Amino acid sequence: MDDNKIIELYFMRDEDAITQTKEFYGERLKVLAYCILRSSEDAEECENDTYMKAWESIPPQKPQHFFAYLAKICRNTALKMAEKQKAEKRSAVIVELSHELSECLPDKYSLEDTAEQELGESISEFLKSVSKENRVIFIRRYFLSETISDISKALGISESKVKSSLFRTRNKLRDYLSKEELL
Description:
The chain is mainly α and 183 residues long. It has nine helices and no strands. The chain has two domains: 3-86, RNA polymerase sigma factor, region 2, helix turn helix motif (Rna Polymerase Sigma Factor, Chain: A, Orthogonal Bundle); 102-179, Arc Repressor Mutant, subunit A (Orthogonal Bundle), CATH 1.10.10.10.
């Protein structure tokens, strides 16, 4: 079953939509949540919350890229869950990723909603300008919250290559956002 048929099931309010979503994307969503939360139980809860939020938002939403839509819901749910869990061990990954990007991005609390949306669009445009490999590495690290080691293994490249790619891409992003007057 393809994404459009699954989305049709949501529009028909057929509960099989959730079953199909879980069958096709459940493991990927759970891995995404696990990369942020580092807990299997929390990742499973986050995965289930994602299905519920998708059920509540489709309709009226009709996502063009279904997995990206689900991944965004899952990631935001996992980040909110991590914020609630104050234990340092659980939030260490988020702190590390925030620190890595702190020089590239403006403080989120200083942005208005429209500026935040503009920033997101600018980052998307920037990522279109870098090589596919650098884009994949950047997204796996900062959107999917994967470790450098996991990215290295998945792409079959050295950890030092991943680190240098991230460093260079962050610097290019900072320069790009400065030119766009967003930093």
